C-alpha cells in the first residue's frame, strides 16, 4: 500500500509518502513541505497548495491519501486556513479517484507512539525509528505527514474489515 500523508496548512503543508503493509517494515518514498508566502492572496496560496499536491500525486502515484482531520482550535483564522488546505488535498485526490481517509491528530499520535497525547518531538522520534531514518524530518509538518501515512497503513485493514461487517449486517437486515 502506498499512501500520501498530508498535514494541511496554508503556510506549510506537510507531505510524505510511505509504502508498506501492517506488520512489515515500512519505506519512506518522499517527504517535504509545500510552502506559500503568508502575504500572498488567499486564492493564490490555495492554487500553490494544489499545484504542490498535484506534483506529489504525479510523482508518487499513491493508492490512498491520508489527511489530518481539522479540529476546532482557539484561533479561527488558523483553523480556516488549515481547513481550506485540507479541502484542496481532498479535492486533488478525489479528482483522480484516489480514496481519502481523515485521521484525527490524537488517532495519528496513538498509532505512531502509543499515546494520543504525544508531543511533536515524540512523533518525530517514532517516525524516524519506524522508517529507519538517520534524523527526524524537518519541519515538524513533514514528520506529521509521514505519521499520517503510517497511521493509515496500520489502521486501514481493520477499518476495511469493520466497514465490510457493517455493510453485511445492514444488507442482512434489509433482506430479513
Structure overview:
- The chain is built from five helices and five strands.
- Helix content is 54%, strand content 18%.
- The relative contact order is 0.19.
- Helix 3 crosses helix 5.
- It starts with a strand and ends with a helix.
- It is of the alpha/beta class.
Q: Which structural class matches the secondary elements?
A: alpha/beta
Please state how the strands of the largest beta sheet are arranged side by side. 3-2-1-4-5
Gap between N and C termini? 37 Å
What share of residues are in beta strands?
15-25%
Mean pLDDT: 92
Shape, please?
globular
Oligomer designation: single chain
* Count of individual helical segments: 5
Assign a percent range to the helix content. 40-55%
Largest sheet: 5 strands, mixed
Given as residue ranges, the uncertain stretches (5+ residues, pLDDT < 50) are: none
Query: How large is the radius of gyration?
Result: 17 Å
Total count of strands: 5
What's the SSE pattern? EEEHEHEHHH
Give me some keywords for this one.
alpha/beta, 5 helices, five-stranded mixed sheet, 5 strands, single chain, 176 residues
Amino acid at each position: 500500500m502506498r499512501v500520501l500523508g498530508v498535514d494541511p496548512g496554508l503556510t506549510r503543508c506537510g507531505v510524505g509518502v510511505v509504502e508498506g503493509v501492517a506488520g512489515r517494515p515500512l519505506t519512506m518514498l518522499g517527504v517535504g513541505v509545500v510552502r506559500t508566502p503568508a502575504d500572498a492572496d488567499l486564492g493564490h496560496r490555495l492554487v500553490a497548495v494544489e499545484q504542490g499536491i498535484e506534483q506529489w500525486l504525479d510523482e508518487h502515484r499513491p493508492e490512498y491519501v491520508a489527511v489530518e482531520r481539522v479540529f476546532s482550535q482557539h484561533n479561527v483564522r488558523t483553523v480556516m486556513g488549515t481547513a481550506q488546505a485540507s479541502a484542496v488535498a481532498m479535492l486533488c485526490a478525489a479528482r483522480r479517484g484516489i480514496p481519502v481517509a481523515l485521521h484525527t491528530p490524537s488517532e495519528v499520535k496513538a498509532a505512531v507512539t502509543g499515546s494520543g497525547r504525544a508531543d511533536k518531538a515524540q512523533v518525530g522520534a517514532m517516525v524516524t525509528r519506524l522508517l529507519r531514518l538517520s534524523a527526524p524530518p524537518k519541519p515538524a509538518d513533514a514528520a506529521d505527514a509521514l505519521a499520517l501515512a503510517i497511521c493509515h497503513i496500520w489502521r486501514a485493514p481493520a477499518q476495511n474489515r469493520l466497514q465490510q461487517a457493517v455493510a453485511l449486517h445492514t444488507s442482512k437486515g434489509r433482506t430479513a
